[in-house]
Write a structure and sequence with these properties.
Blueprint lengths: L1 E9 L2 E10 L1 H7 L7 E3 L4 E2 L10 E6 L13 E5 L3 H9 L1
Parallel strand pairs: 2-4
Antiparallel strand pairs: 1-2, 1-5, 3-6, 5-6
Length: 93
């Protein structure tokens, strides 16, 4: 299961928390994840997400064991273009 993170920048640090565990295949379609959306290969520091005033983004963590038939995805963190609220709605649907 791929992990969905809500993250934000705190200086140069990327900080956030895991908000969901999802199968990679449906996450690719629902969250518009693609190989060119690779954001980082370094994991964020875990901490509670801040208030809405901070620029938050959603990352999907792809690990080697998550890849399966999606060999186009290297392990790393891929950014979704959707807000955390929209991602929650899409994952619930």
């Amino acid at each position: 299961m791929a992990r969905v993170w809500v993250v934000y920048r705190e200086g140069l640090r990327l900080v956030g928390q895991v908000v969901a565990h999802v199968a990679l295949e449906p996450a690719v379609a629902k969250l518009d994840i693609a190989p060119w959306r690779l954001f980082t290969t370094a994991p964020p520091d875990e901490a509670t997400a801040k208030a809405a005033s901070v620029r938050r983004r959603v990352l999907v963590e792809v690990r080697e064991e998550d890849r399966g038939e999606f060999s186009g995805f290297d392990p790393g963190f891929y950014e979704s273009p959707f807000s955390p609220e929209e991602v929650s709605r899409r994952l619930a649907a």
